[in-house]
Amino acid sequence: MSESRIDSAVSLEAARPLRWFVPALLILAVLLSTACSGPKKKEKLANRLVRGDVTTDELFNRATTLFQKRKFVDARRWLRVIEAHAPDSSVFPDVKLAIADSYFFDKMATYIEASVEYKSFLTHFPTHKKADYAQYQYAMCFFTEIENADRDQTSTFTAYTEFKNLIDRHPNSPYAGKAKEKIDLCLLRLAEHEFTVGYYYFRRGRGFEKSAESRLKGIINNYEGQYDPEKTYFFLAETLWRREKFKEAIFYYQNLARNYAESEYMPFVQDKLARWERIKEEGQDPGEITAEVPSDPLNTF
């Protein structure tokens, strides 16, 4: 075999693997590309809604089903799509209210989040047929946050105000009766708080009597029927006596003597009434005669 033919044969043998190697590289590249891209992403609900593949009613019905199963986070995901992309739909008011409810009934959410959504509904739809319900729920967001009598009562006062707004704006609402019951409870807690503060000043003694008097009188003037008159009258009378407002103090002592004859405060009341007679005769307070120290009134809360 000639030298040229030998060289040609060697070249052909060397090139043969390359004919398989190049296509193999292309196939491998395609496979790697497919593997890296992963599964096709699920199309967003918003895109399907905008394109018309799904209706707002269908989305809302699906969200309602999820809500009924207490899958509140999933329900909100569907509801938020309608809120963001279909504000002119007929179900939009119901969507706004459902979003608020999904926060209120979701134990993993907060009442603050719910209150924001109820307020948003009331701002957008103040005359809607469900506005009374939204107002009641808005008030409930604060009612559920009410603290004990010795704590800040901002939530109590806000709840009271919003329940009152419900009654003023929707007097014939089926929620008006519930609101009145909640108002009474709010006033009772506010009165208890005022007494707690007034009693604190009373215990502080000299220099704080004026503050105690203001708080205790505020209870009588602002919370009629929502406070304990027995202990309120007694400690107001004691405060007035300390301030040497004897005649005004006697008014409350006499009320206690007439209406609460079995009261634990009665020995103390009788002492003050006896001393009052001496004051009228002698012009000065003779000091304690038969007084007994009453128990701590805050233990009754």
UniProtKB/TrEMBL annotation:
Record domain Outer membrane lipoprotein BamD-like: where: 54-227
Regions that span the bilayer: 20-38
UniProt KW Nucleotide-binding keyword: no
Signal keyword on record: yes
UniProt keywords, alphabetically: Cell outer membrane, Membrane, Signal, Transmembrane, Transmembrane helix
Residues in the signal sequence: none
Name listed for the protein in its UniProt record: Outer membrane protein assembly factor BamD
